[in-house]
Amino acid sequence: MSKLSAMLLAVLFFSFNTQAQTISVSGAVEDTIHQKGVPNAVVALLSAKDSVLYKFARTDVNGKYNIVNLKAGDYIVMTTHPYFADVLFTLALKDAETAIPRIALTSKSKLLEEVIVKTGTPIKIKGDTTVYTADSFKVRAGANVEELLKKLPGIQVDKDGKITAMGEQVKKVLVDGEEFFGDDPGIATKNLRADIVKEVEVFDKKSDQAAFTGIDDGIKDKTINLKLKDNAKKGYFGKAEAGTDFKNYYNNSIMANAFKGKRKIAAYGIMSNTGKTNLDWEDQNNYGGGMGDNMVVQDNGDVYFMGGGGEDNYYGGRSGIPQNWNGGLHYSNKFNNNKQILNSGYKISKVNSPSGERTYTTNFVGDSSFSSNKITSGFSSKLKQSLNVSFETNIDSSNSLKFTARGNLNNTKSNSTYNLQSLNSKSLLINNSSRTTSSTIDNSALNTNLLWKHKFKKLARTLTINASYNLSNSNTDSYLFSKNDYYDNGIPYRIDTTDQENKRENKSNTFATTITYTEPLVKDFFMSLTYNYSNSSNSNNRFTYEQDINQKYTVRIDSLSNSFLFKQVNNRPGISFRVVKKKYNYSIGTSVSFNHFEQNNRSTNLLRKYNFTNFFPNASYYKKLSGYGGIRVNYNGSSNAPTLDQLQPIVDNSDPLYQYVGNPDLKQSFRHNVNLNYNFYNVLKEKGMWAGVYGGFTQNAFVNQSIIDNTGKTTSKTVNANGNYNFGLYSDYNFKWKKPNIRISFGPNANISRNITFINGQKAVNTNTNYGFQFGISKQKEKKYDISLNPEVSWVKAKNSISSSASANYWQVGIRGDVEITFLKKFRFETDANFKAKQKNPNFPAKNQYTIWNASLSRFLFKEVLEASVSVNDILNENRGYDRTFNDYRFTETYYNTLKRFWMVTLTWNFSKNGKPASDF
Question: Average pLDDT of the chain?
């Protein structure tokens, strides 16, 4: 009996003790305007440590709630309702019962001008997609999407508009999940206003086939999707800008959008000679936009550090100050309850660009060296047109069809004059060259694609057939006149004169089809079978003529003329397996490619046939981490066939002192790639990190083999070699220091590459290294000021195995500061300064240090509908075009024309269906 009593007392004591430790939370949620309870609101408790949901409850008809059976600890209380703004606050639970004071919710309709909740959810990570809430990142009135992207953690936008997200270049920018003016990312980011964007999504866009089947085919493009606010789809809106200095410079543009539900109509036009063309960053490079001070390592081992200049510099042979006329139309719509989707766009641009540059080069050949000084001037005019159309129809619940077509027409006319002088190490003349060229190039291309997708009754069993046909045509008519004087220890001994016309016709067409079948084997385990067939033909006719006795170019030079045909047939079956779980997924697979090549030298009637067999393994793993985060590992292999120019056995003598010869003995190369990516973001603490490492090596890589003779003439061709590799890392850690309201970001980055080349029969190993560190700090107060400072530093090292003189080591530093101040409610002052400096060294002895300082003052009129501004570009007049380049045996510095100091008066009109900015819809 005493034992039973003791047991009962123990159970009773344990019961009382458990009940005493049970904690509950109760309270009420009310509407601040009507002072009434809010029913069906969600009151959730999140762990303060990792923001993971613990427990939640819904309010009753009177707005009251009660959450029971809680554990003591630190929590975040989050209250949400579809029609009210979220409210968050911290709570420490210690007592058995806690009564929370009244939670007051404010209607979202009252938050158009005032943000009451400062601790919302600015970033969410959903699997591979990072979602930014646009209104959580404040930008100035009238700002475009590009300015918004610069505020988002993990995203960088350089001064040319090139976008990098989580360390990868962004290839596409979509609007509501659809292409906007084709695949040109600059149109949307530079012309759409930030205040119409609801969310910014960043993800790796898979191919249509992979997205449908769920089987990764290795085709991914880093993509940004701009989800628009509902009120931006109910009328028209846009922006018109007119700027001039009343003398030399002008910058005019207009963008108009008429959105109605699912229908989108847009048009834009640009006329400018300031370099700010609103083109995407790749076009800016081609037409004169500046490049940042970035290291670019090419497959042949060349390394470029492109930079100098300010917002308006121009690179290399494309230097100059262009005149740009640019326009486009866009139409997209969805019909029949979204069963049919149409997307189309047309763009046209004309760019006239004068150029002028001076180039200094030092060439290292064995133990000797020689230097060259080249002056270039010229003019080019390019007319581009493009049309893209896509139509997708859902035939029924099991079948869909998508057709895509893109066409391009380009015409380029150019002429250039070159004057070059080379000296040996004793400063004695080696050669003296003058050369003029002129050319007309007509290009056309058409790419078509048809995708059929079918779902079987069994879940996850699918069949897709993807067929494409692409063709292109290029015609070039060019003229070359050159006079080269050669010297022996400074004494002239030979003169070569070249006077030629070169006609070139290139045609290519490719047909390809891919069939993919997926089958669910067991739960969460899938198999995919693929078969790919492709057939391509590429012909190149190059004929060179010299003058006859009537001074007409009719006499063909057989040694510089050739007709060549290159055909490829590929059969590639493959299999892969994929496991998909709630918190992780992985895949592994392989394919084998049977390649048949034909080289037909029609000038010599020599036909060569050969075959290659390649294996393409691939594997990936993704694990979702607690909270918002994940880790991904990928491996894939890919082959690369030589181009027709690399194969065709003919001399390209467009520069008599640097001639290229094709190599028909080239084999295809094979590349192995591995990358590891990690990301996390703590929504409530507003801190996150994106980091990754990548690497790869190439078998049978395409490398340069050069012969340099004692006259300074270089003859080069492409050969295969093993030993090329590269690897690197990128990182960005960012957080918000809440008390002073400062956002900080920083992270190291690195790139190391090893490339093989051959110089005068010697094998050279070139190792190029770049270590960098970037830091950013910013502080802003809504409608008051926005201040940011972004310093970066990098160390560059280049090492050549056969010549210590062909090595380089130096530091480069960049500091950019931006200040924006709004005062008296109607005025805004903006200024930015960009300081760049590169360390001098024996190979680059010239001082390269400058500061580009710009400033503007704006006045808002008519409720911010109109903005008048006056601006000064390059106040210190220090802007300069400068490139620093090094490759296997050569160091080069190039100085080129660029915009310097000028001022401009600009009027900007933000218009919409009711004559107010989009934020006032």
Answer: 84
CATH number of 23-110: 2.60.40.10
Distance CA 917, CA 193 (A): 10
* Cross-strand pairs, 402: 392, 451
Cβ(85)–Cβ(114) below 8 Å? no
| Residue-wise pLDDT tens digits, 30-62 | 887 777 888 989 998 888 776 777 888 899 988
Are the C-beta atoms of residues 79 and 37 closer than 8 Å to each other?
A: no
Q: Are 465 and 402 in contact (CB under 8 A)?
A: no
| Angle value at C-alpha 649, between 433 and 533, nearest 5 degrees | 130
Are residues 340 and 392 in contact, defined by beta-carbon separation less than 8 angstroms? yes
Q: Is the dihedral of CA 918, 914, 176, 451 positive or negative?
A: negative
* CA 667 to the chain's CA centroid: 31
- Buried b / exposed e over 347-366, threshold 16 CB at 10 Å, is bbbbbbbebbbebbbbbbbe
Q: Residues 518, 501: contact at Cβ < 8 Å?
A: no
Contact between 563 and 541 under an 8 Å Cβ cutoff? The reply is: yes
Strand partners, 390: 343, 404
Which residue do the tokens 């002429």 mark? 415
Please write the tens of the pLDDT for every residue from 305-335: 333 333 222 233 345 578 899 999 999 999 9
Which stretch of DSSP H or E encloses residue 921?
Answer: none
Q: Specify the amino acid at residue 515.
A: I
Amino acid letter, 277:
T
Tell me, what's the pLDDT at 219?
65
How does DSSP classify residue 626?
S
Instruction: Considering only residues 114 and 539, tell me which one the structure prediction assigns the higher pLDDT.
Output: 539
Between strands 103-105 and 23-31, the pairing is: parallel
Q: Which amino acid is at 43?
A: V
CA dihedral sign of residues 273, 899, 313, 876: negative
Three-class DSSP category at 318: helix
Work out whether the CA dihedral 636, 642, 643, 645 comes out positive or negative: positive
Rounded CA-CA distance 584/88 in Å is 30
Whether 680 and 627 have beta carbons less than 8 Å apart is answered as yes
Query: Residue 268: CB partners within 8 Å, gap ≥ 6?
Result: 181, 187, 191, 253, 254, 255, 256, 278, 326, 327, 328
Q: How far is CA 311 from the centre of its chain?
A: 18
The whole-number pLDDT of residue 833 equals 95
Question: Would you call 790 helix, strand, or coil by DSSP?
Answer: strand
Using CA atoms, how far apart are residues 158 and 413, in angstroms rounded to an integer? Answer: 30
Q: What is the pLDDT of residues 153-171, one digit of tens each?
A: 778 777 667 787 766 778 8
d(CA 508, CA 270): 33
Residue type at position 326 = N
481-496: pLDDT as tens digits: 999 999 998 899 999 9
Domain edges within the chain: 23-110
Q: Indicate the pTM of the whole model.
A: 0.77
Please give the backbone phi and psi of residue 317, each rounded to the nearest 5 degrees, phi first: -65, -10
Q: Which residues on adjacent β-strands are paired with residue 553?
A: 547
